[in-house]
Specification:
The chain has 23 helices and 30 strands. By secondary structure, the protein is α/β, with parallel strands linked by helices. It is globular. It binds ligand MGD (2 copies), iron/sulfur cluster and molybdenum atom.
Length: about 725
Amino acid sequence: MSIQTAAPMTVKQTSHCCFCSMQCGMELVPGDDKPGLTIRPSPIFPVATNRLCQKGLNALDHVIHEERIMTPLRRPVVTNAAEGKRGSVDPNSAWEPAAWDEALPEIAERIRDIQHRYGKDAVSVYGGGSLTNEVCYLLGKFARVALKTRYIDYNGRYCMSSAAAAAGQSFGLDRGMTMPLSEIKNAKYILLAGTNIAECQPTMMPYLLEAKKNGAIIVTIDPRNTMTSKSADIHVRLQPGFDSVFVNGLLHVMIHENLYDRTFVNERTHGFAELAAAVETFTPAKVEEWTGILESVTRTIARGFAKAETGIVLTARGLEQQSNGVENTKNYINLALLTGKIGRPGCGYGAVTGQANGQGGREHGQKADQLPGYRSIEDPAAREHIGNVWGIDPAELPGKGVSAYEMLQKIDEGEIKAMIVIGSNPVVSSPNNRMVERALGKLELLIVVDLFETETARYAHWLLPGSSFLEAEGTLTNLEGRVFHRAQAMEPPGECKPDYCLICELAEQLGEGAYFRYASAEHIFEEMRRATAGGKADYSGITYRRLKEEQGVFWPCPADNHPGSPLLFADRFAHPDGKARLFGIQPKMPAEPIDEEYPYILTTGRVGSHYLSGAQTRRTSALMKKTPVPVAEIHPWLAKRIGLGVGDFIRITSRRASLVFSVKVTEGIQPRTVFVPFHWGGELSVNRLTIDALDPVSRMPEFKLCAVKIEAFKQEAN
Ligand SMILES: Nc1nc2c(c(=O)[nH]1)N[C@H]1C(S)=C(S)[C@@H](COP(=O)(O)OP(=O)(O)OC[C@H]3O[C@@H](n4cnc5c(=O)[nH]c(N)nc54)[C@H](O)[C@@H]3O)O[C@H]1N2
Ligand SMILES: Nc1nc2c(c(=O)[nH]1)N[C@H]1C(S)=C(S)[C@@H](COP(=O)(O)OP(=O)(O)OC[C@H]3O[C@@H](n4cnc5c(=O)[nH]c(N)nc54)[C@H](O)[C@@H]3O)O[C@H]1N2
Ligand code: SF4
Ligand SMILES: [Mo]
């Protein structure tokens, strides 16, 4: 592939890594690597100055990969003669290239036809958290204004939805972290629960190590001894699903030993009585009986955290991706609130956001129930405001739709007939993914906008070439809530189009172009600023000019002269009365408890060298060399129990499927638990096994817990 940079190649280009939420800055400089360019860490961007992890350093590989889709591709439709309608595609049929001026009118025609036959809501949109704020904003507008459908949601539903709901309930506002990363060094006690920072946000580790150097105690709570727990002073190896039992034990000690911050609780929170009643029976002795966590460990951590002058609680998907994920997260937030460790230096709570724009992606309207600025689509005042910005009658705005997985279920049930997927690979990343394959196979129209022919694109009628992170300008919001500008570093190759152009051109074809005419990404941002004004995620004081000068601005930033808000909740919380809420949490069973037939727990997650569905990192040779296949982790106790021999594989069977994996035996995992990373497709996809139970509030799938049986799988049997 020939590379055309946005400016002459002798000039250094700046960008930000496309992978995790740290959003490390990078420079592209002329070099000896394949396209004549080399990636170097940015010496300027303050979040991770001079640091990039293995994924960031290799981020050019997939961009210039020979499998990049370079032109719109179409597949012949299998016509279902009996029903006289257009049917699904044959995933094995060949793609036919098409020109854009053929592709977009034909797609628009198909959409119109489907909406004419089944109604507006028969067409749906599935977005992603790696897209820029401008694209996320446009997608929400496109669904509501151009398609007039209620059905839009995105992959962040699988990611931040439990944390978002919990923070909304506890604080009245969801911004992943209540403080900037720079406060970590001032914390004297840090609780890291279900978060494997060393592999998932590697360039955040120096912040933790600096805190440690300043005397902080670090505690990790995870069923596995992870790379992160290696830096901890105490590691609590709990069985998946027991976080709320353990946290209730901590809260119990804090209350019974009178270690909590009475003034903070009285003046700044509601709900103490409910919380105290809920944890009353959770004595450390009981917690030990239920979880095996020693009484002394619960007491030490409770006392240590409560007595420390400053402290931070960070959670991530370990406890959030559960059918009790919202409750689990609220309980960890209780720890910070009960001890008054929020709203002042060295203190705070953070749900460590996952994707590049996982934060901004959930603020601007690609969620089923949301309008830009973190507004509710059911709030009449919000509808009025957005209707005005968009120049439409608020009554025309559709109501709220359903969550990502529920949209896929609606396809399976026949209610949704068409879907546009952009920036996600749900066939690999959804739970119980055989259902997803079955559902997508039923669509009359599936349009995938991606860089590659992903596992999801196998079911597509149209595969459209989108832009990579280097090829389109835009803004993103990192895990701290810092909004920053990402410049365009090179021209899209071949016929690839910046995602925002593609959406606007399709709107034009649908006859709604008047609402989608923008001169540039900045022009979209300017409209987005107005749309967010007065909302919870208020970006109205942020401009491209400021972002270029200031290396990012923290939202909320409601006015041009507002400095932005790095530290939240110093004086008040975001509920109307200014107070936070404490909740009494009754721990609940997982959706699928272990039993005699399925006696072990499967949990899933990540490894340092791959990213999400693997669409990008499985195409990166240096990363594939490190981790070519998923490796299941089991404890020596379990290995012995199943009679695992040298060189054996293991077969893991859930109520949904049975798969064979390579295996690593390690003391570092809870004995009844098996861990498998989810970055692969097909028969290596652990999501064939996972359960599709959803949290009742956030609709987050229970990725972290299901019951399985495990057998040794002899190589000879292969
Ligand atoms: N290398 C790499 N980095 C990434 C990503 C990637 O795919 N690869 N993805 C990005 C994204 S989108 C996200 S959301 C983040 C995710 O970042 P993390 O949430 O940190 O990653 P996971 O590996 O999913 O889960 C974290 C830990 O939860 C533990 N866990 C499992 N069950 C439980 C439980 O019941 N309780 C507790 N306390 N812990 C449990 C697992 O053992 C695991 O170590 O990472 C981001 N960064
Ligand atoms: N079992 C299990 N499953 C999980 C999880 C787990 O812990 N366990 N974690 C869940 C979580 S937290 C997440 S975030 C999801 C994510 O899962 P997915 O949404 O499937 O994540 P990605 O692999 O990032 O998919 C992004 C797709 O968009 C393409 N792409 C990247 N950048 C761009 C762009 O700028 N424009 C366009 N048009 N396309 C682009 C990529 O090639 C890729 O195909 O997975 C979830 N699934
Ligand atoms: S830490 Fe995250 S943003 Fe930074 S280089 Fe690694 S993957 Fe990219
Ligand atoms: Mo995520």
